[in-house]
C-alpha cells in the first residue's frame, strides 16, 4: 500500500485557485477512482489536500490530478504549477507538520488542528477511511498534541491585536475587573477590544467623533458610547485605552493627564495607540503609572515572538522526525499482517474444530470446566504461533521478507482452505464455552 498526498496551499497557489477546490462534497466522488482504497479530503483556511491509500501510485496520481482539474475547471497544464505531491513517509511527515502548525502561514496558529479533525470526521462518517488513514490520523493528533505540550511553538502573541492583550496581562495581574475605552471605531481597535473581553475584561466604552458609529460599535460589546468631550472624564476610571482614529494631531496629551494620578489613586493606565499618525502624545510615557505602546512597539513584540516560535519549531521538527520513524516501522509491518491473520485464523479454526469433535467426550463437564479447556487450547495455539509471528515482524522492511512470508505460507499451508474460517464470532463462541 502507498500513501499519496496531493494538494496545494498558500505557498503554492493563490486563493482564487484554492477556493475552486474547497468543496466538502468531494469525498464520495474521489473514492469512485478505482485504484483508491482509502481517502480523506483536507480543507483548511489555506490548503486543500487529497490524502489517499493506493496500490497503484502513478495511476492514482494521474486520476486525482484529472479529478481536481474537473472539480476546479482548471487545465492540467495550469494545475501542475500549483500542486505538490508527497509519497509514503514524506506524506506522513507533511501531515504531521501541517497538524502541528509548522506549515501554516503563521507558525503555531491553533486553528489548523481542528480543521484537520473536521476533515477526518467527515471521512469517517462517509466511511472512506481504513486502517492506514485511521492509524495515520490518530498518530497525527498525538504528534500535534506532543508538539504543543513539549515546545513553546503556540506561545507568544504573533498578531498586533493579541500582542496588545499580552502586554495588558503583564501590566495588570488580572483583566477580570478592568474597563476598556475604545477611542475611534477602527477594525484593529475593535479586534483588540474583543481579545481583551475574551481574556476577561469587564466592560468596554466607545468614543467616536461620529456618535452614531460609537453607538453601533458599543452595541457589539453590550456597552455604551460616550462623546469625545467626555474622554478626559472617563480617563479617571478606565484601565485600558485603545486609540485608532484618523486625527492629524494628538487626541490625548500629557497636559490632559496631569493630575490624574491622584484621582486614580495610583492605579496604572495602559494606552494602546494603533493609529497612524499617533493619537497619544509620546510624552505621556514619562508620567508615573502611565504605560503607552504604539504600533511600532507592538510590531516589535510580534517580531520577537515570531523569532521565538521559529526556535521552538526546531524542537518540533525533531519530535516529528522521531514520530515519522515510528510510523514507518508500523507501515513496514503492514506487509506481514495478512499472513499473521491467516496464521491466527488457522490456529483458532483448528481449536474450534477439535472442540466440536470432542463435545461428546466433554458432555459430563460443567460449563465452567468446558470454558477452562477452551481457554487452555486457545492459549496453547497462541503460544505455538507466537514465535513465528515475532520472527516475521523482525523481518519487516527487509528485502528477505517476501521469502519468509512464502515459506510461512507453505509451512503452515495457509493458502489451503481450512474449513470454518476464524472470525470474531468464532472466538467469542469458544471463549464463552
Notes on the protein architecture:
This protein has 433 residues and is of the alpha/beta class. The protein has three domains: 2-150, Beta Polymerase, domain 2, CATH 3.30.460; 160-288, Rossmann fold (3-Layer(aba) Sandwich), CATH 3.40.50.720; 334-431, no CATH class. It contains 18 helices and ten strands. It has helices at 15-18, 27-30, 57-72, 76-79, 88-99, 111-125, 131-150, 160-171, 187-198, 211-220, 231-234, 254-257, 260-264, 295-333, 337-357, 367-394, 401-411, 424-431, and strands at 2-9, 36-44, 47-54, 84-87, 179-183, 203-207, 224-226, 240-243, 269-273, 290-294. The strands form two sheets. It has a six-stranded parallel β-sheet with strand order 7-6-5-8-9-10. Strand 6, helix 10 and strand 7 form a beta-alpha-beta unit. The two termini are 39 Å apart. The model is unreliable at 417-433 (pLDDT under 50).
Task: Break the fold down into its secondary structure elements and pairings.
Blueprint: E1 2-9, H1 15-18, H2 27-30, E2 36-44, E3 47-54, H3 57-72, H4 76-79, E4 84-87, H5 88-99, H6 111-125, H7 131-150, H8 160-171, E5 179-183, H9 187-198, E6 203-207, H10 211-220, E7 224-226, H11 231-234, E8 240-243, H12 254-257, H13 260-264, E9 269-273, E10 290-294, H14 295-333, H15 337-357, H16 367-394, H17 401-411, H18 424-431
Parallel strand pairs: 5-6, 5-8, 6-7, 8-9, 9-10
Antiparallel strand pairs: 1-3, 1-4, 2-3
Helix pairs in contact: 5-7, 5-14, 7-14, 8-9, 8-14, 15-16
